[in-house]
Amino acid sequence: MSSNSTLDKPQAAGTIYVKDIPSRETRLTLGGVISVSPMAIGTWAWGDSTWGYKPEMFNDIANTWDALQEGSGINFFDTAEVYGSGESERIIGRLLKKSKEEGKTLPVVATKFIPFPWRIRYPSSLLDALKGSMERLGVDVVDMLQIHGPVSLRSIEVIADALAESVKLGLVKTVGVSNYSISEMVRMHTALAKHNIPLASNQVEFSLLRRLPETSGLIAKCHELGVAVLAYSPLGMGRLSGKYSAENPPPSGRRFSNYPMKELVPLLTVMEKIAKKHDKPMTAVALNYTICKGTIPLGGARNPEQARQNAKALDWRLSEEEIAELDSVALIGCTGLVWQHG
CA–CA separation, 236 vs 309, rounded Å? Predict the structure, then answer.
């Protein structure tokens, strides 16, 4: 292999994380192919009953989509085939069609394939599911396809071959994984490299309530390999938004970072102080923190106001002293046997 190859120098194709102030104009390059904002919108809540979605909420989501296209700088949306049993993808498909008809620039959309135990025939299992996602999204090519979880009855190498096939067929621009540990990610990176295809990203839960991807060395290893880190649940499923307290806890069922709110008082107190100093909402502090750690946060937004609040995480940066203070009260979190390996 040539010493000048992009596999030897995986970051040669572009920057995968923000090293200075994340602005609305900042663009990062994933997989050497797609150009994305330093923050994304996670769309699990779009169409999924876990978040209390009802069809009459579509107009709010459509208004959120429009608000994000009006100067927020955010051009990156993340969904999955299992969010609302495909409803999240259908909603995004409707919105993409609307934007196209209005002559607007279309955003980057990433989705995910989940390797259920009954999906054992590869590449057909992955390609069939991908075509279902493409139909729901109304696209001829998916910007990025991610493997939703690390547990499968087939090996990482078999799944890597299927991902590579999706790229070679022109159905997908670039590929990533989610919830992969360091060793699992390295195996996927190596397997894809045999096809001369880069691993674009590893999506893991990372926030002030789960610093584990940083303390374990996963983020550093991702950067070494040229793999972008997508941080899901950067607001701790709402616990870091400033909306909830010990007296007013979030609804049940929000299982990620499921700490009693009374345990979060020291952290929330520091966050509130920093937010007031910068005249920013607490959500902006939480999101900016994850950007400062070298990740691309996926903040949820179900109405225009939430979208505007998320966008306030851009155009400024926490100081090193503020990051250290937040580190001192943040939680490390843990992994899980089945889902969260990263």
Answer: 16
Residue numbers of the domain that contains 42? 33-329
- Spans of the chain, pLDDT less than 50: 1-12
Q: Which long-range contacts (CB under 8 A, 24 or more apart) does 130-133 make?
A: 130/166, 130/171, 130/172, 131/171, 132/81, 132/86, 133/81, 133/86, 133/89
- 127 Ramachandran zone, left/alpha/beta (phi>0; psi -120 to 50): alpha
Q: Are 190 and 155 in contact (CB under 8 A)?
A: no
Report H helices in the chain.
Answer: 58-68, 87-101, 124-137, 156-168, 182-193, 212-215, 218-225, 265-278, 282-292, 304-311, 320-329
**pLDDT one-digit tens code per residue, 66-115:** 999 888 999 999 999 999 999 999 999 999 999 999 999 999 999 999 99
Q: Report the catalytic residues.
A: 83
Residue at 208 is within a domain:
yes
Given a contact cutoff of 8 angstroms between Cβ atoms, the answer to whether 9 and 15 are in contact is no
| Tokens, residue 190 | 């190596």
Question: How far is it between the farthest Cα atoms of the chain?
Answer: 61
> How far lies 190's CA from each of 11, 82, 184, 201, 252, in Å?
16, 27, 10, 14, 40
The rounded radius of gyration (Å) of the Cα atoms in the chain is 19
Comparing C-alpha atoms, which of 76, 187, 175 is closest to residue 130?
A: 175
Question: Which CATH number belongs to the domain containing residue 109 in this structure?
Answer: 3.20.20.100
Number of domains in the chain: 1
- For residue 334, being part of any structural domain is answered with no
